[in-house]
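dumping the sequnces here before i forget
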Amino acid sequence: MQVLIWKQLSVRRRAAVLARPASAAQPDRAAVVARIFAAVRREGDAALRRFTRQFDGARLRSLQVTAAEFAAAERVLGRADHAALRTAWRNLRRFHRAQRPRPLRVTTTPGVVCEKVVRPIDRIGLYVPGGSAPLFSTALMLGVPSQLAGNPVRVLCTPPDRAGRINPWILCAAQLCGLTEVYKVGGAQAIAALACGTTSVPRCDKIFGPGNAFVTEAKLQASRAGTAIDLPAGPSEVMVVADDRARPDLVAADLLSQAEHGPDSQVLLVAYSVRFASRVQAELARQLAVLPRRAIAQRALAGSRLLVASGAEAAVAIANAYAPEHLILQVADPRALLAGVTAAGSVFLGAWTPESLGDYASGTNHVLPTAGWARAISGLGLADFHRTMTVQEASPRGLQRLGPVVERLARAENLAAHQRAVRVRLHLLSR
Amino acid sequence: MQVLIWKQLSVRRRAAVLARPASAAQPDRAAVVARIFAAVRREGDAALRRFTRQFDGARLRSLQVTAAEFAAAERVLGRADHAALRTAWRNLRRFHRAQRPRPLRVTTTPGVVCEKVVRPIDRIGLYVPGGSAPLFSTALMLGVPSQLAGNPVRVLCTPPDRAGRINPWILCAAQLCGLTEVYKVGGAQAIAALACGTTSVPRCDKIFGPGNAFVTEAKLQASRAGTAIDLPAGPSEVMVVADDRARPDLVAADLLSQAEHGPDSQVLLVAYSVRFASRVQAELARQLAVLPRRAIAQRALAGSRLLVASGAEAAVAIANAYAPEHLILQVADPRALLAGVTAAGSVFLGAWTPESLGDYASGTNHVLPTAGWARAISGLGLADFHRTMTVQEASPRGLQRLGPVVERLARAENLAAHQRAVRVRLHLLSR
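..and the predicted 3d for all of it:
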């Protein structure tokens, strides 16, 4: 890991330094996923069972988690475990409840009322990855807003282990969120099931949740076929902006907590001096040595950057250009910097707010835009589980006022039937 | 056009009746668009000029509309034309201004504050189709919310005619919305320019606006490459629910105003009696005869449906199953029906609210979800021109309260560095 002084880099080099590594091109991934979709469409549950045997090594009779399995999971966790889950759930509820989309009513012209009304989406499908780390926190992040939205159908899919079991933490998180319909199916086949529907798994209107490259490809194919999806998922990222008064050990700890996610995690430091950056570098080496997932973290650090900016303004410009998923501001006055930040998924202010807080329990959602999507896309929120409809109602007087305007505009667009739909009404009213 | 009695249809037949016709499969469309992207990336403005010559028949020196061209356009429109545009613009402003996303601040745990902050997207690209009908109303629908959001870079692309000119109504609509940067480029090449950037056209973070199948394909490819897009566009649709007290002539006029959009427009009537449906059918034939765009409307009507439901409840169920872009409720108590409607783009209440009102000037946005996307996606609104970031800040006391919970959850997910980022801080605080 090299310390790079931003001022000394050419424009081209700067762009390269902030570029995300291109994901390994796998032209056959799309074809593999398309075949999985076709099989799930054709054979339904039988295909899900076959893929689960093939990819997860589990032979399942029933795909759905039973009440007995939920009860057993609850007994596995201790009292303090349940309390911790409940605290995270409660904070998520508090922050998401405040996001409830507002209905709206505006009189735009006397006699013409426009409204926005809000409805929960009917059927939502949630996906929680399994694998090396059972991410039950993701079950909370998806489960809480769907519980608050009150979507009539709420389904969770997650892959089983070789013995056909779901991690008990995931089941307890699901239960807290009132998710009683949980299916033991993962990967692209889970997304195909949620998009197409099978005898067991209901077809959904929108699919949420992160996953590996096959899951992401499956979500794109689902979206092309008419099922909505949440946001494009990619490798996780953190950028830490730290001034010279920050503690290098805390900065290094935050960088490492991102690096352990996976070898493709992105980790960037923006320091205000070479000296501070070098101290962080030394801390990284020291702390890495004691991490259980150090092999993963080391690979992530190999692709990471330690940048030196000439001050707060330059640091904010770098952050906005990169648009990180997570942005940690360990500086003397983080709120002053925040005012200039325009593109980030979630921002962590000050020395006492590590990213882990937001990953689990502060109340913010950890499903966030990666890969620079923060330039245009927001992290998951309660509104994503609703849709809004606009409504308008004109009184006879309202139509008489606004109708002639509409007639003129429709004529200018050569849309005579649009004009006519107004004119026949105005004729009726003028009789 | 046949009158179909819903009660008498099998489940399979019902699904077929409400299914959108599959869009003509064009496997080479994706390849054509990919080649256009590659050319624009490689050659920039030169490629834009070449494609504009090839597809629009116009030889352009400068791609950007000049101040003189804006001034000339303004002189073409009459005083009443300008007033009509301004009324539409004003109503759109009134309704969209009320949608301004709220910032948010919640204390979730004593000492832990979570926030949502709102930022306009930096660079947005707007696309307005040209072709047979110059849809300046779309320029207003995209321009007004971007003007209210105050996006720092706002660009509009629209194809020129063979003489290299842009329709004066489009330029006047753009000017009303403060859109001074307008480029004479259309089709997939316009989307490629907005996604990749050229010497003339700035690269944008998000692209908005409808278009033909090539434009839609180009937006999908832009989205795969990292540029956000608004919503998937498809052929326009209307469903009219009408009880026996509605006027068949008004219902027919509304159906025709949709049918004239294009031969693939979707037009559905849900009546409460065969007798009423037949009267609408007769009106359609009568009114069709006098329409200038009757060839188009006739082809759209050929694929349309006249359904007879057994009453209000059944009608609402049909509407929700179809999830129309536009839903017109010409019934005695439209608000009673609205309460049950969960999936539609925009709803028009009562006899005096033709769809044309919302297409131009009521104040609602006419960029709406088609093809059943209304089940999960909302029409365009002010929020789509912003992104939100979440923010959290813990005090030492806040971290001491919430930290142990986060430690326990991180450990359960086998993420030791996440746990450690909290623990090193708690150690510091306990000294």
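The two ends of chain B are 82 Å apart (CA to CA).
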